[in-house]
Amino acid sequence: ISLAAYLLNPLRQGYDAEEVGEEYGITMQRFKELFPKKKWNEVYEEEKPRLLEYEVKKTVIAEQLYEKLKNDLMREKMLSLYQEIELPTMYVLYSMEMEGIGVNREALKE
Questions:
Q1: Where would you tag: which of 7, 19, 21, 74 has the fewest CB atoms within 10 A of its CB?
Q2: What is the DSSP letter of 16?
Q3: What CA–CA distance (Å, rounded) separates 66 from 17?
Q4: Contact 54, 31 (CB under 8 A)
């Protein structure tokens, strides 16, 4: 969802399901509204049932957005860019992020 939304509008503020959904008329209460001043892991420990309900709603929004974003990518002639370049690159970047890089600390000191 986020990557497709970014391709369609790289200047928007955020790309999570809540924000992208609003652009398409699909709304839900935001995490910060439901769980003010709490982080996800805190809510997971303290209010797991409510958090799971929230996450299910986000999943439903993502499912609703899939076809809409796909149609918009096709209309803008960006579907092949998304499928053939952006998605594969995303997996490579994720792997690189998880693996990390080697650093010569002595060379950095110089």
A1: 74
A2: S
A3: 10
A4: yes
User: How does pLDDT run across 86-108, given as a tens digit for each residue?
Assistant: 999 999 998 988 988 788 888 88
Beta carbons within 10 angstroms of residue 41's beta carbon: 9
Exposure class string for 61-86: b at 16+ Cβ within 10 A, else e = bbeebeebbeebbeeeebbeebeeeb
Give dist(CA 41, CA 31) in Å, integer. Answer: 12
Beta-carbon count within 10 A of 98 CB: 7
Return d(Cα 6, Cα 19) in angstroms, integer.
Answer: 12
Burial label for 58, CB within 10 Å (0-12, 13-18, 19+), is: middle
Query: Does the global pTM surpass 0.85?
Result: no
Q: Which residue has the tokens 């002639």?
A: 77
